[in-house]
Amino acid sequence: MPATPKVVSANKSLIKIEGLEELLRTITSLKGSVSRSAMVSGMKAAMARMARGLRKEVTRQGVETAHAASLKAGMRKSVGSRFLKGGIDKAGRSHATVAKVGFAVGKKGDDRMSKGTTGGVGVTRQTTHWFVLGTPERVPGEVKEIFGNTVARAANTHGDLALRAGIRKAKQRFEKLAAKRAKRRW
Fold it and tell me: Averaged over 129-152, what is the pLDDT?
């Protein structure tokens, strides 16, 4: 088994994980549905742990606005994850495996504010990028970047925990499937 991967550095645009390539090579060398099932379980567990860490970082963020509590609550609600298994579709096209965790990721449906609310648009899936990236000066006003480094801080703080959770879950899945197959042979 390769060394445990760990987050080496994270900034706004890049999260660097050391040892991940070796782990992925080991998993993919174990051909078949068992390795794929374990990889999916591990990825989903790691993503869930990372999303929880990102929500914690939003809570810790110092926000100096009149509506800080509702802004933080809206941003916490917008944190999500999305996992797409790769492979070859019916048309014969190849698709990569995609795993995302972040603000307004994996959310579906209509989450716009109700008509009865007063003042402003609120924090929804469609508006979270205003608070992460900021907006330029415009007619209604400028929105300052409030949660810009939150993802990088979450990766630095909770990334190793997420990776360990994923590896632990993948190992559990391997063991469960191995026991199931051994039972079938007898």
Answer: 77
Phi, psi of 102 (to 5 degrees): 170, -170
The reported pLDDT for the residue numbered 34 is 75
Q: Tell me the two tokens of residue 179.
A: 């026991």
pTM across the whole model? 0.76
CA 110, CA 92: separation in Å to the nearest integer?
A: 33
Helix axes 68-78 and 33-60, enclosed angle (nearest 10) = 180
CA distance 100 to 83: 7
Kindly tell me if the per-residue pLDDT of 50 is higher than 70. yes
- Average pLDDT value over all residues in the chain: 79
* Residue of 100, 142, 101, 108 lying closest to 125 (CA atoms): 108
Alpha carbons within 13 A on the beta-carbon side of 73:
5
Of 150, 170, 140, nearest to 78 by C-alpha is 150
Task: List all residues 6 or more positions away from 92 whose beta carbon is below 8 Å from its beta carbon.
Answer: none
Using CA atoms, how far apart are residues 50 and 153, in angstroms rounded to an integer? 11
The Cα 111–Cα 103 span in angstroms is 14
What is the reported pLDDT for 7?
78
* Rounded Cα distance, 51 and 115, in Å: 30
DSSP code of residue 48: H
